[in-house]
Amino acid sequence: MRNAAGHRMGLNRIIHGAVRLELTGALVEELVNDAAAAGIKLTDVESRGAYVLRLTVDERDLPALRAMAEKRYLDVHQLALRGGSESRAMLRRRAGLLVLAAVTGMGLFLASLFIWEVDIRGAEHVSRGRILRALEDSGLHYGSFWPALSAGEIRNTLLLRLPELAWASVNLNGSRAEVLVLERSEKPEIYQQTDFADLTAKTAGIVTRTAVRNGKCTVMPGALVTPGELLIAGTVDSLTAEPRKVRALGEIWAQTFHECTAVCPLPEERKTGGGRGFSRFAVKIGEKRVNFYINSGNPIDEYDKIQYEIKLGVPGLFTLPVSLIGEIFTEIRTVPDASTRTDEITARLKETLRQGIEGEVLDETATVSESDSLLTVTLRARCEENIAVLSK
After folding, report:
1. What is the torsional sign of CA 13, 15, 21, 27?
2. Who is most buried in 8, 182, 250, 286, counting CB within 10 A?
3. 257 and 308 in contact (C-beta within 8 Å)?
4. Cβ 192 vs Cβ 242: under 8 Å
5. Which pTM was predicted?
6. Roughly what angle, to the nearest 10 degrees, separates helices 62-71 and 30-37?
7. CB within 8 A of 288, min separation 6: which ones?
8. Which of these, 73, 72, 78, lies nearest to 33 by C-alpha position?
9. What is the pLDDT of residues 311-343, one digit of tens each?
10. Measuring CA to CA, which residue among 276, 283, 274 is closest to residue 326?
11. Long-range pairs for 298-303: beta carbons < 8 A, 24 or more residues apart
């Protein structure tokens, strides 16, 4: 019972307020008797000498106690105030923050009911644009109300629209949609083992090794072969019957020599940084963009532009339909270019060469020449590759 009474007394002081006072004057103890007769409850009464008394009273009884103190010519000093008008004033000062917090919470809740981010994973050959269009046909798009969507229907529509996909999964997590896809593998070449075919050389080279799985090898390591020369014959001799016709299978590896040439105009000027620049900002709300700058139609062709976008939200949990966009512009300056684009062109020639052979590059050299405002780069390479192809 004491705990309950103490708890009620604590709540009463928080609601109505408790004032700590110091009373000074002659016969200050008589004020305690006057307060008791008037029904005013005093607590924590503490004597600080013959003429000083400290006590605590409810804030609502403070005016009546002051009036009694004035009749007895006592000085009243307020030491502290807890709860009551102080708490109400604080709540009034915080009312705007409370309303803002409530509105923000409601906004976050409403925003989490719509799709603001679509994360697509697993697509290598099917473009993101095609997948997004297929998702829009199923009802999943930027700003769609996800509780009304069905992940199963979206998945089925996606597979129907894109036959290149073998499997798909759609997960709706608040304002994020996670789409996982698996593309179909290319079908292997199907042929009959009885189909007749020879393997011939696609390019000239010096044979280094052979690996025959079906048919008759017609070359040996160290042999020099020319384009179109027979490497593995599909006609196999038999000791007891006529020669058999089979499909030749195998690999013939040879050292080959390639030469690639690229020609382009000599560059006269090149861009360099260090010029003047400026930045500008914008906010994207849904599909609408609000620019914090003017004269957005002015030409900016003489500037390099770097744009970045920051989406508001918690990564992996939800995304808000609000993005901060920043654009950095740097003035373009051109200076005479004494160097050439040799390295860039050589790198492209090497990449083209590696994509065109079934093997590896053993060594390579590049030569550069300039004439008539033209830059000529020639790449010569020695490779080891499989030169056996089906004859036509």
Report:
1. negative
2. 250
3. no
4. no
5. 0.42
6. 130
7. none
8. 72
9. 877 666 667 778 888 888 777 666 545 355 788
10. 283
11. 300/329, 302/331, 302/332, 303/277, 303/329, 303/330, 303/331, 303/332
